[in-house]
From TrEMBL:
It comes from Linnemannia schmuckeri. GO terms for molecular function: zinc ion binding. This is 3CxxC-type domain-containing protein. Keywords: Metal-binding, Zinc, Zinc-finger. Residues 63-162 form the 3CxxC-type domain. Pfam families: Zn_ribbon_3CxxC.
Length: 169
């Protein structure tokens, strides 16, 4: 997966606030999905993996479609989710960042990294960026809602730390 080399983070000026330390195995930086976002948006937006709620102009959460595979279970267990909690941060100069949240396996309670539906992710993130950055006065279209099982709030890491959109409803 296309993580940037570590050296690049040391050449830029140090941020005023410490970057958010991601909870290992429970939160995942969305930088590896940026290539798809860049393709869809003609590279209008830049990924900034130092953005936090404190340093962003606007932030919010989105529910993304996708699935999870628990390989700790034998046989492995998989499930679909229409509510993969994804935080979105937007800052000046067309910069953004996303953080994807794990869900726990119902059988063994291991936190599993989401495998997001790339098309759904790109559609939702780019439309939010377009509206928030270029046309902030407009309302975002309600996203297509696909009926899936009720959101398992107890096993969603985003719900556990209070950032999941499904928890607030
Ligand atoms: Zn499991
Ligand atoms: Zn949730």
């Amino acid at each position: 997966m296309g993580f940037r080399p570590v050296s690049s983070t040391f050449t830029s000026a140090p941020p005023l606030l410490p970057p958010r330390k991601l909870a290992g195995g429970k939160e995942f930086d969305g930088s590896y999905l940026h290539a798809a976002v860049a393709r869809e948006s003609d590279s209008r937006y830049k990924y900034d993996d130092n953005l936090t709620k404190a340093t962003s102009r606007r932030d919010g959460s989105r529910s993304i479609l996708g699935h999870f595979i628990c390989k700790a279970c034998n046989p492995s267990r998989s499930w679909y989710s229409g509510n993969i909690c994804t935080e979105l941060f937007i800052a000046s100069n067309d910069r953004y960042r996303t953080i994807l949240h794990a869900q726990q396996c119902r059988r063994c309670e291991t936190y599993i990294m989401p495998e997001v539906d790339e098309g759904n992710y790109v559609q939702k993130i780019v439309s939010a960026l377009d509206l928030w950055i270029n046309r902030p006065e407009r309302k975002e279209f309600p996203s297509d809602y696909r009926k899936t099982k009720p959101h398992d709030k107890e096993r969603c890491h985003g719900c556990q730390i209070g950032v999941c959109i499904r928890q607030r409803k």
